DNA sequence: ATCCAGGAACTGT
DNA sequence: ACAGTTCATGGA
């Protein structure tokens, strides 16, 4: 991680191919999003670090990411953790030359990576949030998924209001582990999703499921198997979490209908491609399936 | 109304 | 291992 403490603000130095504006477009895709806000050219995000609310005002300054702290300047160690959060959030450890080399030769990806060069996978660093959001999004349209997430966060998350804007934190697993499934039914979760989300919360509360343990078992297949052993987590959810939280560039939610829509549109097909067809056309994505998928998702927001 | 949406578990073969 | 069925709820 490359960063610099400048007193009341910090600077983060991303790879040269990073494009902050492209990432902002993706972050702005839903007007129901309440876990971050975009105002003008700035991205606002509330974190809780060492028990302390830390509001980030994130902007671009030439080649660097500039982060200010509107509430108050935090201690140096907290500033470092905030920088680390952003580093992971924008997947800045990833070296993308290999991906771009591959994508420039791929008819399906070529135009998209050209149009959105510098976009990175916008992650979900917190494991519980990544899993709960994936479960919420299973088999429902994104609009409704955002509605459910908003209700969930406003019911169980902490918030802070600053200068008239309210910023929210995603609920902690310890909170959700204690609630009754009927409470989630009132928010219009299905019975199964209510069970799944509470089950994941309990597994995390008890320490059976941690991000650290998953990251420790490096092998893709091991992690995928571990995740799929959890009730409510199928192949799609496991790959989604490995892509958005665990930073596996080869994670591939191949059954994703958004991916299917993007491919259909990009190739001008009459129907959505089959899984077998996608396997065929993604042979050369090997190692970069997550980035290929993410760029295809990005292509959905311009037609 | 009808189809479908960033699926998963269950059941039967 | 694989295919078909059920679950579940709102958006367009």
TrEMBL record:
HhH-GPD domain residues: 136-301
TM ranges: none
The protein's Enzyme Commission number: 3.2.2.21
Keywords: DNA damage, DNA repair, Hydrolase
Family annotation (InterPro entries): AlkA_N_sf (IPR037046), Alkylbase_DNA_Glycosylase/TA (IPR051912), DNA_glycosylase (IPR011257), HhH-GPD_domain (IPR003265), HhH_base_excis_C (IPR023170), OGG_N (IPR012904)
Annotated CDD domains: ENDO3c
Keyword DNA damage: yes
The UniProt record lists the keyword DNA repair: yes
Protein origin, superkingdom: Bacteria
Record field: catalytic activity: Hydrolysis of alkylated DNA, releasing 3-methyladenine, 3-methylguanine, 7-methylguanine and 7-methyladenine
Protein name according to UniProt: DNA-3-methyladenine glycosylase II
Source species of the chain: Ornithinibacillus xuwenensis
């Amino acid at each position: 991680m490359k960063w610099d403490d400048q007193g009341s603000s910090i600077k983060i130095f991303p790879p040269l191919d990073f494009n902050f504006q492209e990432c902002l477009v993706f972050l702005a895709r839903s007007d129901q999003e309440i876990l971050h806000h975009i105002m003008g050219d700035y991205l606002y995000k509330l974190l809780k670090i060492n028990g302390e609310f830390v509001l980030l005002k994130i902007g671009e300054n030439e080649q660097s990411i500039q982060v200010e702290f509107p509430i108050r300047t935090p201690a140096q160690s907290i500033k470092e953790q905030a920088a680390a959060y952003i580093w992971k959030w924008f997947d800045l450890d990833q070296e993308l030359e290999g991906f771009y080399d591959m994508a420039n030769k791929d008819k399906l990806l070529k135009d998209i990576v050209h149009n959105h060069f510098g976009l990175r996978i916008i992650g979900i660093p917190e494991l519980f949030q990544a899993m709960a959001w994936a479960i919420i999004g299973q088999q429902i349209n994104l609009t409704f998924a955002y509605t459910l997430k908003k209700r969930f966060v406003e019911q169980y998350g902490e918030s802070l209001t600053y200068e008239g804007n309210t910023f929210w934190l995603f609920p902690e697993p310890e909170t959700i582990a204690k609630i009754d499934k009927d409470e989630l039914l009132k928010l219009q979760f299905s019975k199964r999703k209510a069970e799944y989300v509470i089950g994941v919360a309990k597994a995390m509360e008890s320490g059976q499921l941690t991000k650290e343990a998953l990251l420790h078992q490096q092998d893709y297949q091991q992690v995928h198997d571990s995740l799929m052993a959890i009730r409510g987590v199928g192949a799609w959810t496991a790959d989604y979490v490995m892509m958005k939280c665990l930073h596996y560039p080869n994670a591939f939610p191949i059954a994703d209908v958004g991916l299917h829509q993007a491919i259909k549109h990009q190739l001008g097909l009459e129907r959505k491609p089959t899984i077998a067809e996608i396997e065929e056309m993604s042979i050369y994505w090997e190692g970069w399936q997550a980035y290929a998928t993410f760029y295809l998702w990005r292509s959905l927001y311009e037609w």
